[in-house]
Amino acid sequence: MQYRPLGKTDIRVSVMALGCWPFAGGAVWGHQEDSDSIDTVHAALDAGINFFDTAEGYEEGKSERILGQGLKGRRTEAVIATKVSPNHLASEDLMLACERSLKNLGTDYIDLYQIHWPSRSAVPQPGAKAAMGSGGSATREVPLEESIDALERLKKAGKIRTIGVSNFARQDLTHALGLADIVSDQIPYSLVWRAIEYEIKPLCTKNRVGIICYSPLAQGLLTGRYRSADDVPEGLARTRLFSNKRPMARHDDPGAEKEVFEAVRKIQKVADRVGASMAEVSLAWIRQRRGVMSFLVGARTPDELKRNLPTLDVKLDAATSRDLARITDPIRKKIGKNADPWNSNNRMR
User: Fold this and answer.
1) Contact at 8 Å (CB) between 204 and 169?
2) What is the pLDDT of residues 63-78, one digit of tens each?
3) Which long-range contacts link 299-305 to residues 24+ away (Cβ below 8 Å)?
């Protein structure tokens, strides 16, 4: 296992992190046996994975509770990252949310406490200037200063060790960096979703903010299991990679279906040449990108987790990495700077 610093701290996290949302089961993931989830946590620790990501919003804290059960007796081996929901960013709400998460996780401290999404945008006042960049109005319903002040108080009290953000783009991240030591930004990033490369990734690398990648396999697109857009389940074919005519889409974009599946076919050829699976090559490409601290893998059983581990042995040479970037560049250009996978009206600004 490889380990990298959590931002500018001396905390070291595994480059492969376990995303614990599937532990919640529920409407998104379907039935999930708690025993399978707990066994997966143990298997991750045994494999050297020490970084676990969850959130209070995953089925009202169920994911946190199951992770806490999995870490009983092994808490010191783990770096726990969890998130406060955007409807809990007011000072008092945030403090209470942290206490709930601590109870759910069965611990007295959280290693990385993240703002899950920026506060919703407030209606701008007459005469107010529009926000710089894409997405959002000039203000947030809860001022970021209020949320950061609460987080700093939690840090001073020893309830949390570090502060991170999730789904923050250039404007909000710049604002946050002016208020606190932000160690990480959790953001969607994969071979077919490279919107962060325009503005967010350069800002993170400049300020030593570790990038935590979610959806590094683009919800299965980069496993090779889908041959065309019509093969993709409706619930997954709702991102801006797909046409706005798809049944569950809530964006106005035309999508990039032609470009995506042309790229998938070419990535498979590169993977064949390398002698690894498409998923392994795709994760290796992400792992080797400058500024990437860790990437999340979702696993519901120890066997699922083990299928992801071989990617750590795959190393791409510079020419292959450039080739993969060239293959997916038409998608990057078509998607543009909006890093929000689901909405044309960018919630990240």
Assistant:
1) no
2) 999 999 999 999 999 9
3) 299/18, 299/22, 299/40, 299/44, 300/22, 300/23, 300/29, 300/32, 300/36, 300/37, 300/40, 301/36, 301/39, 301/40, 302/39, 302/40, 302/42, 302/43, 304/40, 305/18, 305/40, 305/43, 305/44, 305/47
Answer for the pair 200, 339: CB distance below 8 angstroms, yes or no.
yes
Whether the pLDDT of residue 127 is over 80: the answer is no
Instruction: Please tell me the pTM assigned to this model.
Output: 0.92
Pairing type for strands 12-14 and 3-5 reads antiparallel
- Name the residue with tokens 């995506």: 260
Question: CA 286 to CA 168: how far, in whole Å?
Answer: 19
Give the Cα separation of 70 and 301 in Å (integer): 13
| Backbone angles phi and psi of 345, in degrees to 5 | -80, 90
Q: Which two tokens stand for residue 333?
A: 């250009």
Which structure tokens are listed for 179? 């208020």
Other CB atoms within a 10 A radius of the CB of residue 221 amount to 28
3-223+285-314 topology per CATH: TIM Barrel (3.20.20)
CA angle 170, 174, 180 (to 5 degrees): 140
For the chain, the residue count is 349
Domain range summary for the chain, segments of one domain joined by +: 3-223+285-314
300-338 residue pLDDT tens? 999 999 989 999 999 999 999 999 999 999 999 999 999
pLDDT score for 312:
94
What does 275-287 look like in DSSP terms, one character per residue?
A: TS-HHHHHHHHHH
* Cα distance between residue 227 and residue 267, in whole Å: 13
pLDDT of 230-289, one tens digit each? 999 888 899 999 999 999 999 999 999 999 999 999 999 999 999 999 999 999 999 999
Measured over all CA atoms, what is the biggest interatomic distance in the chain, rounded to whole angstroms? 60
Percent with pLDDT over 70 in the chain: 95
Radius of gyration of the chain (CA): 19
